[in-house]
Amino acid sequence: MLAGLGYFVDIFDLLLFAVVRVASVRELAGESQLLEAGTLLQNTQLIGMMLGGLAWGMLGDRRGRRSVLYGSILLYSLANLGNATATTMGQYVAWRFVAGFGLAGELGAALTIVSELVRARDRGAATTIVATMGVTGAVAAALVGGAVSWRTAYIIGGVLGLLLLALRIQVRDSAMFTRTRASVEGRGSLWRLLGNRARAGRYVRAILIGVPVWFISGILITFAPEFAKTFGIVGPVSAGTAVLVFYATTTFGDLTSGLLSQYWRSRRKAAALYVAFTAVGVTLYLSGVAKTPLTFYALYGWVGFTTGYWAVMVTMAVEQFGTDLRATVGTSVPTFVRATAVPMTLAWGALRPSLGIVGAAAVVGAVAFAGAGWALWRQSETYGVELDFVESAA
Questions:
Q1: pLDDT tens-digit series, residues 206-239
Q2: Which of 140, 196, 202, 361 has the most CB atoms at less than 10 Å from its CB?
């Protein structure tokens, strides 16, 4: 339950920026900077998450998962309160970096603890519950961001984080990690993770599987108003409503994909099915079939449901590695997936002058889905594996 609440606050804070982007940038930088400043802020946050994912992950394997939960929650809660005080774009950018760094630790540490505490046959169901509770945070972000000023919304996010920190004061590390901490050297070593070709391959494939989710979130959702204008949709379209629809349906996607992976006894098959249906939804979206706000949002509902394989993706990543590297992987994989939005938005921006907003997105999306398909094809099945093991010294 506490892991699910933690992910709820994590997603609330992460997606809140997409909801308040227009209002906050308009106040601090002006109407003409909505796209450029929005891209800068999002990329800065994601770079912070990428660096934070490595730092928190290594700390989780060296000092314990609970230390990551406490430290990351405190940092991103204070950063959100700081966002509410920003009076210049420079301050806003700096606070988004700090918030991103803090947000990087929550999901991976929580799912690592949950995975190590439950039985192998129940692991998928447990992580599915965490993810399903978590994505409702995006729905809350859309509702709160649409109901109050952008500064008040950030204050609410910060207060929620501090309340969660108080609730988690009794969380303890698993016995599995405690044994490993006492007997294994080199825990959380990046060299051990990336210096071995087989382990590095597992790690990169774990990241690639999730990239389509953040192609949609980082480009198609964050810049929903710009896409709607390009498609000639008449009527109001907001990123906040896109976030609300997308993540409301993602809740059901997380639930069904997790249960399907349990029923099929295969993480890979469930993830592959949802990736395929996501590709269909993105194709329809970029082909411009939506002509009204209602049908436009309906497509966000489609891809929201199908990208619900996120929980299965993170569970697969956690299950791929031993206890001595599990927190590093579990924390850094989802943050690196999110951080891929940085090169994707940069590539999208570079291609826009020649291909247009839609054509550039089609090229970037095609690369993202091709990488995910290849990674799923090559990655090993992890359903039901026992996690009480460590990686070899090689």
A1: 999 999 999 998 899 888 988 999 999 988 888 7
A2: 361
13 CB neighbour count, 10 Å cutoff: 28
Contact between 190 and 58 under an 8 Å Cβ cutoff? The reply is yes
Supply the pLDDT for residue 169: 65
How many Cβ atoms from other residues are within 10 Å of residue 182's Cβ?
A: 7
In a domain, 384, yes or no: no
Residue 182 lies in a domain: no
Q: How many structural domains are present in the chain?
A: 1
Determine the structural domain holding residue 113 and report its residue range: 2-167+190-378
Residue 231 located in a structural domain: yes
What CATH code is carried by the domain that includes residue 107?
Answer: 1.20.1250.20
What is the distance between the alpha carbons of residues 90 and 343, in angstroms, rounded to a whole number? Answer: 22
Q: What is the value of pTM for the model shown?
A: 0.82
For residues 74 and 66, what is the distance between their CA atoms, to the nearest angstrom? 12
Residues in the chain where the model's pLDDT stays below 50: none
Question: Contact at 8 Å (CB) between 203 and 327?
Answer: no
What is the distance between the alpha carbons of residues 342 and 368, in angstroms, rounded to a whole number?
A: 13
Say which amino acid occupies 171.
Answer: V
Q: Which tokens is 68 given?
A: 């990551």
Average pLDDT over all residues of the chain: 87
The gap from C-alpha 353 to its chain's centroid, in whole angstroms, comes to 29
